[in-house]
Amino acid sequence: YSLPPVTVAMFSAPAADASGNIYNRGAAVQSEMVEIAMAARRNRGLVIALVGSIVDAGCVSLSQPVFHGMA
Q1: Sheet strand arrangement including 8-17
Q2: Whether the Cβ atoms of residue 45 and residue 36 lie closer than 8 Å to each other
Q3: Which residues face 9 on adjacent strands?
Q4: Alpha carbons 67 and 2: distance in angstroms, whole number
């Protein structure tokens, strides 16, 4: 049998910036967030991120973003 296409991806992250970059440093669980989001986008689906705070773009204390410009 075949699996249905992934059309919705939902996850939680500590922070994001106004450009849609998602930062995952300090998250309690780091799983396949990037892969799930890419699968949803590939199928013209929706990516929903619940974030703890909105930070300035390029925030040094959070290191590199996990996702770039998903907004």
Answers
A1: 22-23, 8-17, 46-55
A2: no
A3: 47
A4: 28
Burial of 13 (0-12, 13-18, 19+ CB in 10 A): buried
- Collapse the DSSP code of 17 into the 3-class scheme (helix H, G, I; strand E, B; otherwise coil) and give the result: strand
Q: What is the pTM of this model?
A: 0.71
- 34 CB contacts (<8 Å, ≥6 apart)? 66, 67
pLDDT tens digits, 21-40: 888 877 777 778 888 889 99
Rounded Cα distance between 37 and 55, Å, is 21
Map tokens 């390029």 to a residue. Answer: 58
What is the rounded CA–CA span in Å between residue 29 and residue 18?
Answer: 23
Beta carbons within 8 Å of 14's beta carbon, 6+ residues apart: 23, 24, 25, 26, 27, 51, 52, 53, 62
